[in-house]
């Protein structure tokens, strides 16, 4: 969700690898593709489109130009109140999906009201860059005994129950939610569902009727605390007044992945993406440590706790971003594109920045990569038009990483003779790396530590992946582990753990040149090696991205 109202700047181009990059100023970006063009739909009816996921231009339609004509009636009927008289500032977080049965694009948009008196509505269009037609309301929130007849609650619950005890819909620790952040989903069998809700009572989902795009009124849900509600459907995450909003679902490799945003969207308020997964669309969703996405009680400041995989964080390192103006903070409300032509996954989210003002935000894109143990990890550098390549397919020079032009990124194997035989062999992947940990316990809060660094901005340390499979750091030291004994020197750098390529036969032949397991300080992370251009200078660089024990890490060859 969002309470800002900014315009999209003119489309920004990148003149060269070192040029400053700027994404479109769109909050809560929902990404969707039609005929090779990518579209972002965001809060306050801000739209942008692109042919390459890098260069974006704004566009308009009847919904952005004249929302009163389309939404005025439902606005006056439900959300409009003296506390929020402006419709234009209360069109939040749309998401768009193609409906095969209707042969229409369906947009689910929240029309927000004071004190949670909101409604998610459906609009349809023939094409994503065309005009929209209002269809009707899908789900309400903020109702009570005095106004329930202005909603579809009696149709869903029945007249007797709808005019009975509605106390649970007024409890912020039960089912008092805000009808925002719609996420329509199509399951493998063609059924359509929609998740929604935020904070407080959690995130819920119910089935849609594909012939209308509206709620499927034939499907009923039992009343089961923390699991199901007759009006809101199935509970999938959150509750008990804990932060959590902007749900999004992706199906890949036999898993359903649930993305959630914890914290609050302000620049210093800890907004961040957490990840869960399930074999079934309706759950249950758990993280790597088995913690459920559904809260089982109050968790103060849950954006600093261990539930959910923290996918990204604020990072400052040599490959970029390395300047306060570009250090991302308050990253959240994401969507994911599964690109039609190659099935690659791209994470889209909005972010603010450590060295900029509160109202300066942009949408950003990163590639998502599957791991050997069935999780998703984010590419260490933002997407700039070049997809991740495995080491065996990429041309880069071992050791110094020297590359004079970005075109070398996709050059033939002959450009790198040292890697012709087996560029993904551990001997070639070994070396010094900057390592960044995405600490789930901290976030950028606008204050500095004693050394002057921003609190919550994660800085790199240097580790070495040794050719023999050790992970080391530092140099020789002297120590004594026996009382009274003379200190003795180590043989070399201190051992921190181990690393190995996955999927190798006894003969050393591998089915994948990217999968890796890295154990550092007792924690094992599973991830992938990836060659991609650095944000700071476009230089093709060997990186890794991995996750273990709900902790994500990034590495970049020094």
> Mean pLDDT score, rounded?
90
Oligomer: single chain
CATH homologous superfamily annotation of the domain at 40-241: Glycosyl hydrolase domain, family 43
Gap between N and C termini, in Å? 38 Å
CATH topology of the domain at 40-241: Tachylectin-2, Chain A
Strand content bin: 25-35%
Order of strands side by side in the largest beta sheet?
22-23-24-27-28-29-30-31
Report the total helices: 5
Shape: globular
Class per helix and strand makeup: mainly beta
Helix content class: under 10%
Give a description of the structure:
The protein has 558 residues and is mainly beta. Among the domains are: 40-241, Tachylectin-2, Chain A, CATH 2.115.10; 393-400 and 423-479 and 488-557, Lipocalin, CATH 2.40.128. 5% of the residues lie in helices and 34% in strands. It has an eight-stranded antiparallel barrel. Strands 9-10-11-13-12 form a five-stranded antiparallel beta sheet, with no helix packed on it. The protein has a four-stranded antiparallel beta sheet with strand order 1-2-3-4, with no helix packed on it. Strand 28 and strand 29 form a beta hairpin. The two termini are 38 Å apart. The model is unreliable at 2-17 and 396-421 (pLDDT under 50). It holds the Pfam family GH43_C. The record marks 181 as: Important for catalytic activity, responsible for pKa modulation of the active site Glu and correct orientation of both the proton donor and substrate. Keywords: Glycosidase, Hydrolase.
């Amino acid at each position: 969700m969002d309470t800002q109202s900014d315009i999209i700047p003119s489309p920004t181009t990148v003149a060269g690898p070192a040029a400053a990059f700027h994404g479109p100023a769109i909050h809560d970006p929902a990404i969707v593709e039609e005929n090779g063009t990518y579209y972002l739909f965001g809060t306050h009816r801000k739209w942008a489109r692109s042919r390459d996921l890098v260069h974006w231009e704004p566009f308009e339609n009847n919904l952005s130009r004249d929302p009163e004509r389309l939404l005025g009636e439902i606005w006056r009927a439900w959300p409009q109140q003296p506390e929020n008289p402006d419709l234009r500032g209360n069109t939040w977080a749309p998401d768009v999906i193609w409906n095969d049965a209707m042969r229409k694009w369906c947009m689910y948009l929240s029309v927000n009201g004071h004190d949670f008196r909101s409604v998610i509505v459906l609009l349809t269009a023939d094409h994503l860059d065309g005009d929209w037609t209002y269809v009707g309301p899908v789900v309400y929130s903020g109702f009570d005994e005095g106004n329930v007849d202005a909603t579809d609650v009696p149709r869903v619950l029945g007249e007797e129950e709808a005019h009975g005890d509605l106390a649970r819909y007024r409890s912020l620790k039960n089912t008092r939610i805000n009808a925002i952040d719609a996420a329509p989903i199509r399951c493998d069998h063609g059924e359509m569902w929609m998740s929604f809700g935020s904070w407080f009572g959690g995130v819920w989902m119910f089935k849609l009727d594909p012939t209308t795009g509206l709620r499927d009124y034939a499907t009923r849900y039992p009343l089961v605390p923390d699991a199901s509600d007759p009006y809101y459907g199935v509970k999938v995450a959150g509750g008990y007044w804990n932060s959590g909003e902007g749900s999004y679902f992706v199906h890949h490799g036999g898993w359903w992945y649930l993305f959630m945003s914890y914290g609050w969207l302000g620049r210093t308020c800890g907004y961040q993406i957490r990840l869960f997964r399930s074999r079934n669309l309706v759950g249950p969703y758990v993280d790597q440590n088995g913690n459920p996405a559904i809260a089982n009680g109050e968790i103060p400041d849950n954006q600093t706790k261990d539930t959910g995989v923290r996918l990204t964080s604020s990072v400052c390192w040599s490959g970029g971003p390395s300047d306060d103006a570009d250090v991302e903070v308050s990253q959240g409300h994401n969507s994911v594109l599964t690109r039609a032509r190659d099935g690659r996954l791209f994470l889209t989210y909005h972010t603010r920045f450590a060295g900029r003002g509160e109202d300066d935000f942009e949408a950003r894109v990163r590639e998502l990569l599957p791991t050997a143990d069935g999780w998703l990890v984010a590419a260490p550098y933002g997407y700039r038009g070049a997809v991740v390549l495995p080491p065996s397919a990429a041309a880069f020079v071992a050791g110094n990483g020297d590359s004079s032009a970005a075109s070398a990124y996709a050059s033939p194997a002959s450009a790198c003779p040292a890697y012709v035989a087996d560029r993904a062999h551990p001997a070639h992947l070994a070396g010094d790396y900057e390592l960044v940990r995405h600490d789930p316990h901290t976030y950028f809060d606008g204050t500095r530590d004693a050394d002057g660094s921003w609190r919550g901005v994660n800085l790199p340390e240097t580790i070495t992946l040794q050719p023999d499979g050790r992970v080391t750091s530092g140099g020789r030291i002297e120590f004594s582990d026996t009382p009274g004994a003379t200190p003795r020197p180590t043989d070399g750098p201190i051992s921190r753990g181990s690393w190995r390529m996955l999927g190798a036969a006894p003969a050393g032949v591998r089915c994948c040149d990217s999968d890796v397991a890295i154990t550092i300080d007792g924690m094992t992370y599973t991830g992938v090696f990836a060659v991609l251009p650095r944000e700071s200078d476009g230089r093709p660089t060997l990186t890794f991205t991995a996750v273990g024990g709900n902790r994500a890490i990034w590495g970049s060859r020094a």
